[in-house]
Amino acid sequence: MRPDLRTAIATVCLSGTLDDKLAAAAEAGFDGVELFENDLLASRRGPAEIRRRCADLGLNIDLYQPFRDFEAVPPDVLARNLRRAGHKFDVMAELGADTVLVCSSVSPDAIDDDDLAAEQLHLLATRAAERGLRIAYEALAWGRYVNGYEHAWRIVRRAAHPALGVCLDSFHILSKGDDPRAIRAIPGEKIFFLQLADAPTLPMDVLQWSRHHRLFPGQGDFDLTTFTRNVLDAGYRGPLSLEVFNDVFRQADPYRAAVDAMRSLVALKDSLGLLDVPAAPVSTGFAFAEVVGESNLAALGFTRAGVHRSKPVELWTQGEARVLVNAEGEPGAIGALGVAVPDPAAAAHRAKVLLAPPLSREAGPGEAPLTAIAAPDGTQIFLCADEDWLGDFVPTGESASPAGITGIDHVALTQPFDNFDEATLFYRSVLGLEPGATTEFAAPFGLVRGRGVSGGVRLTLDAALVRRGGWAPAVKEPQHIAFTCTDALACAEVLRQSGARLVDIPGNYYDDLAARTDLSAERVAALREHSVLYDRDDRGEYLHFYTELAGARVFFEVVQRIGGYGGFGVVNAPIRMAAHHEARRGR
């Protein structure tokens, strides 16, 4: 497999005018574009001018698309279709595009006759070849008679024309559960084009799934590494091109979306072994989490252990949990995360290749040269080796009575909705964290989507699907740090006795818990007494409780994992959110 495969993106992936889309694609580093016909029709530039604009930007027009409902039709319809084709060929000549995408027909005029389809596609390919053009035939997953790639290939093979080949689209193939291994039987020179899209697993009509919910590779549930490897092993050497229909991407900043798209292809190439880039770092845990402004950590049993030599930052510790409190920045926010990695330089190089924005940091004399990158939501991610950075803090000599907190379990970061899938890809590709299943739950003031990413460290990414007006008294983009403990009930008791402001959980929750689980009455009573929430899966149990807000939007959670429990207690999130709301209102 060659590492120099070109990259392309369909203009339909991005928002804005055609000029906006082309500029964004070029700035993100794409080699070419698939020109979607609607973008051409809405542009004030003529085809020849669009060709010159693409050349100025260093972009090739790799595909013109789509040409719909052509094949297997009665003679009068065929005549009209050939007239349409002639016009498209004229446009392509001006554009400098040599390949047109022909989708399998969904027309009521179509006839279920492979021989007729092959005959008419042969005729179309003959006319295209006379103009130096090619036809890439694609099986739509909802095609009337041709809806599988193997069927499309049989028709192309039967047509037997050198200017006719297939276009393979990962969504149309994987959404139907078709086996991509048979792709290897298609000669590479007959695979004229490859379109890539990921998607979440959704039980819905495939057409609606396709039109609204496609994602860039690495953001969904499809195995695009295996799929693409089959295509490359067949001998395909054209561009890796993205065709993603997504309601969010088509409204988002096209420059940001194009960078996210390019990151997805870089990560895909890396997964295929086509890039010389360091492997994703294997994190050994959180070095620290940073909050901005007053956090009341003393009430949780933390010790103010150090003061930074040159910055207004304090180090608070308890067990292996380290929290930095920064006096500068947006109060009440998680400003940074320190991720411990074996080789920060290699991790930083990988981050650069995967288009993670680097952050400049001024280090004083003798201070650790930490490398930082920006996550999609603006959180600073520091790549730390060992504990060298601890030398930047002057010890205070202070001590406190610990409450039983032992470390950091996970950090929860609420994402702007438009960045939810971008964040998943960022953490997966840059830090090697593996995404869990996406969940949705009804919160007191709207629907919330969440997803955990894990691997050495755990993060949860949450997003509110819709916000309407000023009625919802919700905290904007809440964040929290979850600490570990060995005994949640004992830890909650100590913290309440020390005056920590913990969230009270209503009795109805525990009445229901007793009814739907086999927990003993004594266990439920203890959970109720300390306002500790409970969840379990097939591997273990999860006990957790929360503090009230410490600042504008940050709070803390204390968790106890028993056995191999792998979740985050999402089932209890609406209960916690309602309790937080009541606490803010003063009940």
From TrEMBL:
Pathway: Aromatic compound metabolism; 3,4-dihydroxybenzoate biosynthesis. The keyword Lyase applies. One of its GO terms (molecular function) is dioxygenase activity. Pfam families: AP_endonuc_2, Glyoxalase. Keywords: Dioxygenase, Lyase, Metal-binding, Oxidoreductase. Its cofactor is a divalent metal cation. Its EC number is 4.2.1.118. PROSITE patterns: VOC. PANTHER family: HYDROXYPYRUVATE ISOMERASE, XYLOSE ISOMERASE-LIKE TIM BARREL DOMAIN-CONTAINING PROTEIN. This is 3-dehydroshikimate dehydratase. It comes from Lentzea cavernae.
